[in-house]
């Protein structure tokens, strides 16, 4: 066969999804023949593997007597700027998102967020805090920015800044003391807006102070951006640890790598007599960390200076950097940074928890069933009907 005959045969190969042939499209760039050996060079416009696979099946059918070698030149797949392998990322300018969670309220989640965020900023990172605790947005007070006006540029709000950390909170967007009854859908919308409609700069780390528990807010966040690490804050008594287990289980279910546990209110040193009492117990988190194959990032005692720092908007890590407590926060921040640095930039995927139904399509409807089957087929490599072909 000569090159002209080969081209004639290739006119019968349609470009997948189109009525024109690969010759009509001009995708066949070069053909080399030597006896029965033929090499064909194709330039195609699709990055899709399916398109290449189909052409690899169809071309030999029209040239059955040749030993074919096919070379495909395809456009490079666009590299995502985010650290998400796939799935949504509505805030790609933020390199790492750290979710600060607790099983219950009042254990020191916001206190930890504030001091850890400042400690990481003091170690040279560009840091932000998003206060997503819509039920108790305490970050503005703890960072000393409550009552400050938010600047609006176009239709986006600029974060406030204190102690080198960018801050945005539901607390500064709602009227002080205003109570809002949040339903699931509203929480989801609020969290997404706090990521999308705030002018977050390029950040190394954004800490998110979550509402307590394991609910809609956590799921929405993990479905909207790739969360690089989860921190669990707990007090050491067993009643609190039970709730922490739920929070650590949630990280696993949402495919969030666990950075570690902060054991807060761990022991109390009496300022008068200097004796230590373990009011909420002490050291129990080490076992929990082992159980979940993670680490204790730090143990912080009950200390009046921590509470005072929170109430006055003067966080201890910034105002008393020489204190033992500040040093513990600095060490916890160091451990967190090491954990984040050890992650490959693109090994965080939230693909597994992305919703597969488009908005408005019920999973039980015939269309929904079809989408579900196609999704499963993609995952398993079979036809998705459960017939066992894979
Ligand atoms: N280690 C600590 N020592 C003393 N007070 C603390 C400590 N951790 C937190 N607090 C105080 O306890 C209260 C609850 O802490 P907070 O961070 O608001 O908890 P959460 O965000 O989990 O509800 C705050 O008044 C805070 O200042
Ligand atoms: Mg709080």
Automatic annotation (TrEMBL):
Keyword tRNA-binding annotated: no
Residues at which ATP binds: 103-110
Entry's Gene Ontology molecular function annotations: ATP binding
Superkingdom classification of source: Bacteria
Keywords from the UniProt entry: ATP-binding, Hydrolase, Iron, Iron-sulfur, Metal-binding, Nucleotide-binding
InterPro entries referenced in this protein's UniProt entry, alphabetically: FSCA_dom_sf (IPR034904), Mrp/NBP35_ATP-bd (IPR019591), NUBPL-like (IPR044304), P-loop_NTPase (IPR027417), YlxH/NBP35 (IPR033756)
The keyword Repeat appears for this protein: no
A Pfam family annotated for this UniProt entry: ParA
HAMAP family in the record: Mrp_NBP35 (MF_02040)
The protein's role, per its UniProt record: Binds and transfers iron-sulfur (Fe-S) clusters to target apoproteins. Can hydrolyze ATP.
Similarity comment text for this entry: Belongs to the Mrp/NBP35 ATP-binding proteins family.
Subunit and partners: Homodimer.
Protein name: Iron-sulfur cluster carrier protein
Organism in which the protein naturally occurs: Aliarcobacter cibarius
């Amino acid at each position: 066969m000569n090159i002209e005959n080969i081209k004639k045969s290739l006119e019968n190969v349609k470009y997948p999804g189109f009525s024109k042939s690969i010759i009509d499209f001009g995708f066949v760039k070069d053909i080399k023949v030597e006896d029965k050996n033929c090499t064909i060079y194709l330039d195609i416009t699709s990055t899709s593997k399916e398109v290449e696979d189909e052409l690899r099946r169809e071309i030999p059918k029209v040239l059955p007597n040749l030993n074919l070698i096919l070379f495909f030149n395809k456009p490079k797949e666009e590299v995502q700027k985010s650290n998400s392998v796939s799935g949504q990322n509505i805030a790609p300018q933020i390199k790492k998102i750290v979710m600060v969670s607790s099983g219950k309220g009042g254990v020191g989640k916001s206190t930890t967020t504030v001091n850890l965020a400042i400690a990481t900023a003091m170690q040279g990172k560009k840091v932000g805090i998003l206060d997503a605790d819509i039920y108790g947005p305490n970050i503005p007070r703890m960072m000393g920015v409550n009552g400050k006006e938010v600047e609006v540029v176009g239709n986006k709000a600029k974060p406030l800044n204190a102690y080198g950390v960018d801050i945005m909170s539901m607390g500064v967007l709602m009227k002080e003391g205003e109570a809002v009854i949040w339903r699931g859908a509203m929480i989801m919308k609020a969290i997404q807006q706090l990521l999308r409609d705030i002018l977050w700069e390029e950040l190394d780390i954004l800490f998110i102070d979550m509402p307590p528990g394991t609910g809609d807010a956590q799921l929405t966040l993990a479905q909207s951006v790739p969360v690089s690490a989860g921190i669990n804050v707990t007090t050491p008594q067993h009643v609190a640890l039970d709730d922490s287990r739920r929070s650590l289980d949630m990280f696993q279910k949402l495919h969030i790598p666990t950075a570690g546990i902060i054991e807060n209110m761990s022991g109390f040193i009496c300022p008068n007599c200097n004796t230590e009492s373990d009011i909420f117990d002490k050291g129990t988190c080490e076992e929990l960390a082992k159980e979940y194959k993670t680490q204790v990032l730090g143990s912080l005692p009950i200390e009046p200076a921590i509470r005072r720092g929170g109430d006055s908007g003067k966080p201890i890590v910034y105002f008393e950097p020489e204190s033992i407590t500040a040093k513990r926060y600095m060490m916890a921040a160091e451990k967190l940074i090491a954990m984040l640095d050890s992650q490959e930039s693109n090994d965080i995927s939230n693909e597994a928890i992305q919703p597969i139904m488009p908005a408005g399509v019920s999973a039980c409807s015939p269309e929904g069933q079809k989408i579900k089957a196609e999704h499963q087929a993609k995952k398993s490599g079979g036809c998705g009907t459960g017939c066992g072909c894979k």
